[in-house]
Design brief:
mainly alpha, two-stranded antiparallel ribbon, nuclear export signal receptor activity, Exportin-5_C
Amino acid sequence: MDEHVYEQLLRAVDVCHATGSLKAERDAAYAYCEQFQQTPNCVSYAFYLLQQRGHASHHRHFALHVVENYIRVHWKNCSADETVQYRSTLLNIVASHVAADEPSFIKEKLVKVLADIAKRQFPQRWPDLLEQLLSLWSMGPIQAEIVMLLFRSIAEDCVSSSFNSTIPPIRRKDILQGLNACFPTLFPLVYQQLEMQYAQLQSPSADHKTANAVILAALQMMKEFLDWMPVNTPASPDTNFIAVASLLLQSPALQHSIRIAAAECLEVYFSRTFGKDHLALVVATTQTCWSALAQISVADVNDSDDLNLHLHVNRVLVSWGTHQLELLVAELPASHDVLLPFVELLLRFFQHPSLTVTEAQVIVWLNLLKQKKVVSSLLVPHNVLPALWRTSMDKYFKLHSPDRDDAHPVSALEFDDNDAYVAFYSNFRGRLYGILRLLLQLQPGVGLQLLYERLQYVLSAHARGTDALDEHGHCTDSSTAHLYHEGLVALIDCIMKSLPESALNEASHLATLSATVEALLAYETPDPWLLFRHCLALSLFAKYYMRAPGLYPRVFERLFGLIVFAQPGETILTTMDPTTMNVRRRALASLISICHASPSHVLPFLPILCNQVIGLFPVVLDSESVLLYEMLVLVSNSLPTADERTLFIGQITAEPLASWTSPAMTALVASPSSLVAAMTAKDDALVFGLVKVLTTLYGIARRIVHGESVHPFASVWPVLLPNLLSLLRTLQTLPVEQHTLFAASDNSDVRGVLCMSQEEVVQALVGKEQVPALQPDLLKYARWAKNVRDIGYHLVGCALSLPSFYALVDIPSLASMLDQAVLVHMETMEHRHWKSFLASVWLPFVKGCPETHLAPLLEPRLQRVLLHLSSRLAPVWAGSPSPTAHLPMLIGLDMQATTIDTVQNAVVLEVVRHTVDLIEALVDAKTVVDVDSDHPKHIMMEKDRVRRDFVLASPALTHALTSLLLGVLMWRDTLSARRSAILLDRLVSLLFGRLDLGGLLGKDVFTAALTALLAHFYDVDDGLKWELVNLLRNIYCRLTLGLLPVDECKGIDPVNQPRKRDEDINPWPRQLLLGLATVETGHVVELEAALRQQPSLKAQKNLMKEFLETPFLAYRDAPHTFKAIDDLPEALVLPTKAKEAHDQHDDGVGLLFQR
């Protein structure tokens, strides 16, 4: 060894860690250290350093890093003698060169290096690992701690079945079997060590730091073992680790880290599957655990450590409730003494001030409330339901933000600020909704009474805002009164939506509802924040109004009065405050909601509504008048005859149609030049009147509900469509003629018709960034163009979705309409328009096109759109910028370059996601049925099946669809990629018998799935990865092996399915697997045999995943990976059970914990 090099290395490490060293010095030191690690004898220097006394911790840590890196890079090239020497040296360092006060990061690094060797050699090439480690164990507590940490580290990566595992599957199994053989010897020693160190903690004069460290290491090791060892081993009489963990968890004098580790052990253990064979074991361990948890107080949460402990204790309860509840419920009433303490503990933690604790329990309470035996024998007799009602309703109010002065201290521990609290709360309230829904099924009268009581409290105690008021003295979103009213309305929404229909037949329930509505109608306030909630609350009782129709006039009178609400100094001719507009819109929406809930009950009041609407037209805004039309249409749907409905629709559409077909409007929409000319002339009445007319007509059309008779809007389409198609053609042509319409130096505001609106930009940024407007007048035209295009698309889509429309127009005319107005100039359409184009026109067209029109009308146009999308998205798949013509024109807004990039990426993302929507509608359209039941179903209607079969019968359409899906599959958006994988899997299941598609499915799709899986190999969220694995499994099983899923094996033994003929076998998937790194023919043969023997989808997916792990590891480039870990050729031979059972522990073990 060169002393000069050694000293130089120490100085370099010092410089790297010195806070005062210059950047140039640190860079040089880093470079020297990296260069040193490339030298062939670097490991000798590292071992020498580690065996010398007096070196600083950072020197020792670097030396361990050198050893770790050397092992990972050079292990394959080391001789057998060298490997033995390296591990012996490391064991010697643990035995003789580790101080009692060694920093934890040094111990962890030492454990990591030893674990790296064990993962490569144990047990075949390191058969005496246990004996060597036990000899270390006997040297002292620090060595015992390191040994247990080593076992933990070895088990951690082997037990994990995630994709991030760095050990090949066969190696993992060998290691786990080797560890399993160690249990009989190891566990008594661990138990003895726990007992000894626990006794040390009881002695005031003992070394508590070492004792705590050893106990923590033992618990962490056991946690990794508890997930897979035999379930009876941890609870055996001589080494009852479950009793030990329960004792440690309940001991308040112990460190929080130890108690949390004990809770984690119990959580893992109770997540196991026991089965009836181990029922007595479950009962015994559960009772031990419950008696310990009963000693833990949840009253005081002083700091984050207390909260963290309670969170982990709660996880024990949730784990038990999720995995063991069903087993014990089946044994009622015999299991009463086990379930009652569980329910009491669960309720105690449900009432915990932590919202996180409460949320975690919801799934367990939902299960409990669905079990009739549990409700009748436990929840009702022991008064659990009243506490559950009270806590659920209390926490339904959003009053616990850490920014509030009266917030519970726990809230500040859980949430950084109000934004984090609000983000959490929306999901949290939705979970409480589920509990309240089930409680209402059990006790509807109790729910209605509690709602009434809380409404009385809120309307009396918080009738006005008292804090966080605005300059007008009104509430803001953080005012206490507003929070109470918001929570009350959310609670009303939950109660009324969940209330069983049968509950509305009882007089007592109707009386409570009557009192509740009367209290609402009696409430008055000028505060717009509270009025907004008031309007919403009135609409939520629509189900009750059907039983008390006399309330309709009073409710309508209140809401009509609020439609014209204005604060002092405001009129429709001036700019209104946003809070004013919110009240007016909410009042309108509430009226529409009530009429939509039961138009037949409102029908007797239609004349009154018409008179009110006529009187309101002069004093409401254009957008509000549209909503008034919609309300009338909803009620008119209940008119008794088709003639009456048609007559009514004709009457209310007469005026807007007259405006729409006027000569001025016809000239306006005729061409881009006439449109630009009108805007330049500031003819705002005509230009912006167009928006009101179209919005009115669309509002009327979309609210019509028709049966089998003639559609009431049928007579309107022939009058409406000519100018509508001219308008769409004009909008589509604008980008083509922009250089003619606008000179290069033209800075007029009319250019806004070509620009992206401020609202679209904000939507693209998901509201996370405010974009100030620099040219409001220009953006006014941008907003106009966006709104007009959207409404135009909506109207066309509305027509194409109606079966009656296809009877009005012949196929050639329909084809001409689509070609000349809708599909014209697609190549110049910006990406941002395709969201509305696909969602509003093509989805309704695809779903509404009659079977007779599929071939002559839908197919050629669909193929044209799909081919255009493939061309449009080709640069996206390649990672290249989109053409400038496809990107939005961003003018008049104050935007940074990074914001512009975000907006451009967002519009591309929308095109991709809506393309997937279109493909899904074509090949896997589903309709939700039984929506109001507990188990709604997604089924394919016969019409959707016919359309799917037609589309897939066309080779051109099938190739176009698949090509798009393959591009999505390998793109960066994992949500779209996952949906693409699901749709491709569906295509494989439908088309696997088509030999003409063998290359497409067996080669192209299989290759893309492999490529995508490799690209996402490191992802933590494995949802996409499992879909890709399933896609690969499906292709291989169906195309290459001829295996059908179990549910498709009608009259066939799934394990003995007939083999495919050689000429029917698709060879591509097998060849592609054989082309992967490290894969040999024998491996594929073994995979195929296993796939045949295990027909379940879950087993086959696991087989495919484990098969791919090994070759994929070879493709990983990162130097810190375990790609050097190989399967060992030696067969695994373990000692006999008789030898394992030899008693290794002292007779007195366990007396301390058993006392």
